[in-house]
Write a structure and sequence with these properties.
The complex is a heterotrimer of chains A (about 90), B (about 425) and C (about 450).
Chain A: H1 3-13, H2 19-36, E1 60-61, E2 80-81, E3 84-87
Antiparallel strand pairs in A: 2-3
Chain B: E1 2-10, E2 48-49, H1 50-62, E3 66-67, E4 70-71, E5 74-77, E6 87-90, E7 97-104, E8 107-118, E9 122-125, E10 130-133, E11 140-146, H2 153-168, E12 179-185, E13 191-197, H3 199-218, E14 227-231, E15 236-240, H4 246-249, E16 252-253, E17 260-261, H5 273-284, H6 288-295, H7 299-307, H8 310-325, H9 333-339, H10 349-356, H11 368-380, H12 383-391, H13 393-407, H14 411-426
Parallel strand pairs in B: 13-14
Antiparallel strand pairs in B: 1-11, 1-12, 3-7, 4-17, 5-6, 5-16, 7-8, 8-11, 9-10, 12-13, 14-15
Chain C: E1 7-8, H1 10-27, E2 30-33, E3 40-46, H2 73-80, E4 83-89, H3 122-130, E5 135-140, H4 146-152, E6 155-158, E7 178-183, H5 186-196, E8 218-222, H6 231-246, E9 250-254, H7 262-277, H8 297-305, H9 310-323, H10 328-350, E10 354-358, H11 367-370, H12 375-380, H13 386-390, E11 395-403, E12 406-413, H14 420-430
Parallel strand pairs in C: 3-4, 3-5, 8-9, 8-10
Antiparallel strand pairs in C: 1-3, 2-4, 5-7, 6-7, 6-11, 10-12, 11-12
Helix pairs in contact in C: 3-4, 5-14, 7-9, 7-10
The chains are: A alpha+beta (about 90), B alpha+beta (about 425), C alpha/beta (about 450).
C-alpha cells in the first residue's frame, strides 16, 4: 500500500496515529495484506456468497408501538442540554 | 442541460424503520421517542418494520420499477454527529425497486432506484457545539434516485409535481418538506447540490446553478466537478467540502438483517392522478388543467369527479369549487351528490349551509340559554383561548364576532351579553 | 442430568466477592465485580455482553464509563431462571485477540501466571477455572471461546451461529459473533444453554430451530489442517485419538479443499464488519467523552478514537481499506464466496461424523513468548478454531491432557444445529477424565 493511500485511509476511518504507530501499523498492514493475497491463488468464479453461515429466514416487526427497552434515563450516559444530546460542533 | 435527483420522503408508518418507537415527529420534547436501537447504543440490533416494506414495495411499483423479489440492506459508513451508528442502513444493489420511470407530459423520466433507508437524527448547529434530537433517528424513508433525464427547469417543476402526486396517492404526507440532492450538468461536468429542503428551494437552487454554470461557460471558464450547498438566506449555491466519496462509503451487506421476500406483499393498483385527469378531460370535454389542479393532491375530488356522469361534470367541478370557496372541507360523497341536484351558482354561504342541512334557518335566532351553554362548552375545552380574550381586546372582539355568526345574533346588546358570559367564566 | 451450580444466599455473597477480589488481583479475570448483595446461582458474563446497571467496556478505553440501561437477551433469560451475575469478565478489546493480551490489564493463566489465559474470552475461562461449578457466558467470533478454554483447562462450547440471541452483545463482526459458554461440566453447560437458546424478536438473525444430538461415532481428522501444528501437540493428539477409538469411535483421515484458506477469509470478513461496527464510537453519547465540544466534529471523533488499542486501530484501518469500492471484490466478496464453498465442503463431512482437531496448534505459551509476535503470526494461531467459526458450525474445546502441569485442549466440531451432540460427547468423556484445577473459590 502506498504511503499516500495509508494516510487517506486514516482520514476515512477517523483514526489518528502518532509517528511511532504509523511506522509499525503501516508495516503490519502491508504484511497482513500480503497474507490476504493468498486468496488470489484460488478461483471461485461461480460460487455464491455466504452473507451468513446459516440460512436466516426473514423476521419482520409489525408496525406497532411498544417500547420494550424504554430507557429510564436517556441521557444517563451522555451530556445533555434541555432534552437535547450535546454533540460536537458542525 | 441534464438534471438528476435524489428525493427523500418519509413513509407514513406508525413506528420507526428498525425499532418500535413512534415514527412521526410530534410536539413532544426532544429525545422522547428513542430506544437503544435508534440511539445506536452498543448491543442493540435492528428488526425491520413490515409496514415500511409494504409501503416501499407499493411506491416502487407506482414508479414503474422492477421490484426485487429478494430485497436486502447495506451499511453506508460516514461520520457525522447525527448518525448514531456511524453508518446508515440503506439499500443499493438489493434495493426494493430499480429501473422505473415517471411519465411527465408523455416523456419518461427514468427512475434508477427506490431504496429504503433510515433517517438520521435532527441536528442543530450552535456556536460551540451541536444539539441532537434522536426522535427523528430511524424514521423510515424512501430515497428515489432518477437518471439525469430532466432537461429544463420547466421539466423539473413538472416532474416534482407528478412525483409528489404519485406519492400522495401512496399515502405519503404531502405537507412534509422533500429533501433532495440534485445534480446538474450544463456541459460535461457534473455538479451536485446536497440537502435542499422543500420544493421552492429546489427550484431556486436549480435556477441559480443553471445561471452560474451558463455564466462560466459564456466566459470560457471551467466548471469544477464538486459538491455544493444551497444557502436559503442568500439564494445561492456555494462550494462545500465533499464528506465522503462512493469509494469511501465502503458499502457492505448489513449482517444484522437478512433477505426479505417481496413476492407475498399485496400490491395495490397505483393511482396516477395526472393520467386520471387526462382521461376525465377527454371523456367529459373539460379543461385538463382545472381537473389536474382539483385532483392531483385530493383523493376525494378524484373520486367524486370519477363517479359522475358527463352531463353533471361541469356542475360537479363548480360544486367542488363552491365547497372550497366556502371553506367547507368535511363533506361526504352523499352530501356532494345531494347538492349536485341544486343550482348553487349564486347561493350565499348561509343559504348553502342551510341547503346542506348543517345550519338552522338564518331567521331562527338562538336564545340566550343556548348561546350561554355554547360559549361555556367552547371555552371550557380551550382555556387558552379564553385567557387570550380576557387579556387582549382584539381577541375578545374576534371571539364575540365568531359567536354572533354562529348563533345568528346581531347588535350591541348581543355582544354585551356574550362578553358578560365570557367574563363570568373567568371567575370560576 | 444433574447440574450443580454455586448457589448462594444473600448473606454468603459478600464472602464470595471478597474471595474473587483477592483472586482478581492476581489473575485479572474480571473487569467488574458486582458488590451489590444478591442470591441465586452464580454466573459471570463477558464484558462485551450488556447487563443492565453494570459497566460494559468490552475492555476498550473508548467504552469506559458506559453503563447500559438494558439487558442482553441471554442475561434476561438467565435472570428469569434464578441466575445472578457476579461480574463482567476480562477480554481482548472488542474480542480482537487470541491470547487475552489486548486488554489494559491482561488476564493470566490460573495454572501459572507467567502463561497466557488465551482469548478473547480470557476472563470467562479464568473465572470458570477459579470458581466452583462455574459457567461463564462468553462469546466467540473466530475462536474466542475455544482458545482460552483450551489454555485454562476448561470446556468451551460455541453454538451454531444464530441459536443464541445477540441482542445486547457489543458487536465485533455481526455475521460471525456467537454467544456461548465456558464451564467445567457437561451438565452445567447444557442447563445454561437450554435456558438461553432460541429465537428472539429483538435480533433478526436469531433462530428458533430444533437442536439435535446425533452422534454417528465417527471422528474425522483433517490432514491439511494439521500442517502448522507443533510436533509435541501432534503426539499428544495422536494419543487422544487412540483413546477415543478405544471408546468406540472410528477415526478417519481426510483432507478438505480450501480449509487452509479459512484464516485469511475470516480476517477479511471480520475486519470489514468490525470497521463498520466500531464506527459508532465517537466520544459523546456514551463511554469515553471528549470534553471539548467546540472541536470540529471530525477532529472531535479523531480525538475520541485515539482511545482504541493498537489492534483495534489496525483492524479498523484494514477493514476500511477492504471495504473500499475499488477493491471490495478482490478480498471481501471473494471471502464470502470462499465461506460458501467451505461450508458446503465441511457440511458433507459433518453429516457423517465429528471433525476433531487440537484446539490450538501450540502448547500454552508464556506471556513474554507471544507479546511481541507480529499480527500474521498471531492470526495463524487461529488456524484450527477459525474454520468452524467462519462457517457457523458448533464446536467445543475440552481438556484432555496436562503437559508439565499445563492443560491441553482438543476441539470437536459438528453440523449446524447438532449442538447437543457435543455435550453428549463431553458427558461420555467426563466418565473417564478428571479435571484438574489449582484453586477453586466459592
Amino acid at each position: 500500500m502506498e504511503k499516500q493511500e495509508f494516510y487517506r485511509l486514516l482520514k476515512v476511518a477517523r483514526v489518528e496515529l502518532d509517528e511511532r504507530e504509523v511506522e509499525s501499523i503501516e508495516k503490519d498492514i502491508n504484511d497482513i495484506l500480503a497474507f490476504f493475497d493468498k486468496l488470489e491463488s484460488i478461483s471461485l468464479e461461480d460460487e455464491k456468497m455466504a452473507f451468513h453461515s446459516v440460512e436466516i429466514p426473514e423476521k419482520l416487526r409489525s408496525d406497532v408501538a411498544d417500547n420494550k427497552d424504554k430507557l429510564n434515563n436517556v441521557f444517563y450516559n451522555g451530556e445533555s442540554y434541555r432534552f437535547y444530546f450535546l454533540g460536537p460542533r458542525i | 442541460m441534464k438534471i438528476g435527483l435524489e428525493v427523500h420522503v418519509a413513509l407514513p408508518t406508525k413506528t420507526k424503520l428498525f425499532c418500535s418507537d413512534l415514527a412521526y415527529e410530534n410536539q413532544e420534547e426532544p429525545n422522547s421517542n428513542v430506544c437503544p436501537v435508534c440511539l445506536g447504543l452498543p448491543g442493540s440490533k435492528p428488526v425491520l418494520n413490515q409496514r415500511a416494506l409494504e409501503i416501499s414495495t407499493n411506491i416502487a411499483n407506482a414508479l414503474n420499477c422492477k421490484i426485487s423479489e429478494r430485497t436486502w440492506f447495506v451499511r453506508k459508513v460516514y461520520f457525522y454527529p447525527d448518525l448514531p451508528k456511524g453508518y446508515q442502513i440503506t439499500q443499493l444493489d438489493g434495493a426494493i425497486g430499480t429501473n422505473g420511470y415517471v411519465a411527465v407530459h408523455g416523456k419518461k423520466i427514468r427512475i434508477r432506484r427506490v431504496q429504503i433507508e433510515e433517517d438520521p437524527a435532527r441536528i442543530t448547529r450552535e456556536k460551540d457545539y451541536s444539539l441532537i434530537d434522536f426522535n427523528r433517528s430511524g424514521v423510515p424513508l424512501n430515497e428515489i434516485v432518477t437518471e439525469p433525464d430532466i432537461f429544463s427547469l420547466e421539466e423539473l417543476k413538472d416532474f416534482i409535481d407528478e412525483l409528489r402526486s404519485i406519492l400522495y396517492y401512496q399515502g405519503i404526507n404531502i405537507n412534509q418538506e422533500l429533501k433532495t440532492d440534485l445534480n446538474i450538468s450544463l456541459a460535461e461536468t457534473r455538479v451536485e447540490i446536497k440537502n435542499v429542503t422543500g420544493v421552492r428551494n429546489l427550484i431556486a437552487a436549480a435556477e441559480y446553478e443553471i445561471a452560474r454554470q451558463s455564466e462560466l461557460i459564456k466566459s470560457g471558464k471551467k466548471i469544477a466537478a464538486e459538491t455544493r450547498a444551497y444557502k436559503e438566506d442568500s439564494n445561492e449555491t456555494v462550494s462545500s467540502r465533499e464528506k465522503e466519496t462512493e469509494e469511501e462509503y465502503g458499502f457492505t451487506f448489513e449482517p444484522d438483517l437478512t433477505f426479505y421476500d417481496t413476492t407475498r406483499i399485496t400490491i395495490q393498483k397505483p393511482i396516477i392522478a395526472s393520467t386520471v385527469a387526462a382521461d376525465l378531460a377527454n371523456k367529459n370535454d373539460y379543461g385538463e388543467k382545472t381537473i389536474r389542479e382539483l385532483i392531483l393532491f385530493n383523493r376525494r375530488n378524484l373520486s367524486l369527479l370519477s363517479s359522475i356522469k358527463k352531463e353533471e361534470f361541469k356542475d360537479g367541478v363548480s360544486l367542488i369549487e363552491k365547497f372550497a370557496s366556502f371553506g367547507i372541507d368535511d363533506y361526504s360523497e352523499k352530501e356532494f351528490k345531494d347538492m349536485l341536484k341544486h343550482d348553487v351558482s349564486s347561493v350565499e354561504k348561509s343559504d348553502f349551509m342551510f341547503m346542506l342541512g348543517r345550519e338552522k334557518k338564518p331567521e331562527q335566532k338562538a336564545g340566550k340559554p343556548e348561546i350561554e351553554a355554547g360559549i361555556k362548552e367552547m371555552l371550557s375545552s380551550d382555556r387558552g383561548l379564553m385567557e387570550r380574550g380576557l387579556k387582549d381586546e382584539k381577541a375578545m372582539s374576534f371571539m364575540i364576532g365568531k359567536i354572533k355568526e354562529k348563533y345568528h345574533v346581531t347588535g350591541k346588546e348581543a355582544a354585551d351579553f356574550i362578553r358578560k358570559v365570557i367574563k363570568s367564566m373567568s371567575n370560576n | 442430568m444433574t447440574s450443580k451450580f454455586l448457589q448462594l444466599e444473600k448473606a454468603e455473597y459478600a464472602k464470595l466477592v471478597e474471595q474473587l477480589k483477592k483472586e482478581n488481583e492476581r489473575l485479572n479475570a474480571f473487569n467488574f465485580i458486582d458488590e451489590t448483595e444478591k442470591d441465586g446461582k452464580i454466573i459471570s458474563v463477558k464484558d462485551n455482553i450488556c447487563v443492565k446497571g453494570m459497566p460494559a467496556t468490552a475492555s476498550s478505553r473508548i467504552l469506559h464509563g458506559y453503563v447500559p440501561g438494558f439487558n442482553a437477551t441471554v442475561v434476561d433469560r438467565l435472570e428469569k431462571s434464578g441466575f445472578s451475575v457476579v461480574g463482567k469478565t476480562n477480554m481482548d478489546e472488542f474480542g480482537f485477540g487470541s491470547f487475552g493480551l489486548n486488554s489494559e490489564h491482561p488476564a493470566k493463566n490460573p495454572f501459572d501466571e507467567d502463561y497466557v489465559a488465551g482469548g478473547s474470552s480470557s476472563g470467562s475461562a479464568v473465572a470458570t477455572a477459579v470458581m466452583k461449578n462455574h459457567v461463564s457466558i462468553a462469546e466467540s467470533t473466530g475462536g474466542s471461546i475455544s482458545a482460552p478454554a483450551a489454555f485454562c483447562g476448561v470446556v468451551g462450547l460455541t453454538p451454531t451461529y444464530g441459536v443464541m440471541s445477540r441482542y445486547g452483545l457489543i458487536d465485533y463482526a455481526s455475521s460471525l459473533d456467537k454467544i456461548g459458554f465456558i464451564g467445567k461440566s457437561a451438565d452445567n453447560i447444557r442447563d445454561v444453554m437450554e435456558k438461553t437458546v432460541g429465537g428472539d424478536e429483538k435480533d433478526t438473525t436469531s433462530l428458533s430451530k430444533h437442536i439435535s444430538n446425533e452422534n454417528p461415532r465417527r471422528l474425522y481428522v483433517v490432514d491439511n489442517l494439521m500442517d502448522g501444528v507443533d510436533e509435541g501437540v501432534k503426539d499428544r493428539f495422536e494419543e487422544l485419538l487412540s483413546k477415543l477409538s478405544s471408546m468406540g469411535y472410528t477415526v478417519e483421515h481426510i483432507s478438505i479443499e480450501y480449509l487452509e484458506y479459512s484464516v485469511p477469509a475470516y480476517y477479511i470478513l471480520s475486519m470489514s464488519e468490525a470497521s463498520t461496527n466500531l464506527a459508532k464510537y465517537q466520544g459523546f453519547k456514551y463511554g469515553f467523552k471528549v470534553k471539548d465540544f467546540s472541536l470540529n466534529y471530525n477532529d472531535f471523533f479523531m480525538s475520541a478514537r485515539k482511545q482504541f488499542g493498537k489492534e483495534a486501530k489496525r483492524r479498523v484501518i484494514l477493514g476500511t481499506f477492504i471495504r473500499s469500492k475499488s477493491i471490495k471484490q478482490k478480498y471481501y466478496e471473494k471471502s464470502l464466496a470462499l465461506r460458501r464453498s467451505i461450508i458446503d465442503k465441511m457440511k458433507k463431512i459433518l453429516e457423517n461424523g465429528f471433525i476433531i482437531t487440537p484446539t490450538m496448534p501450540i502448547f500454552t505459551p508464556k506471556i513474554n513468548e507471544v507479546s511481541d509476535i507480529n499480527p500474521v503470526e498471531a492470526y495463524s494461531m487461529d488456524m484450527l478454531t477459525v474454520p468452524p467459526n467462519l462457517c457457523g458450525f458448533p464446536h467445543m474445546s475440552f481438556p484432555y491432557f496436562y503437559e508439565k502441569g499445563m492443560p491441553l485442549g482438543a476441539q470437536v466440531i459438528t453440523d449446524h444445529f447438532n449442538d447437543y451432540s457435543l455435550l453428549d460427547f463431553l458427558s461420555e468423556w467426563e466418565k473417564d477424565f478428571k479435571y484438574r484445577f489449582k484453586k477453586e473459590v466459592g
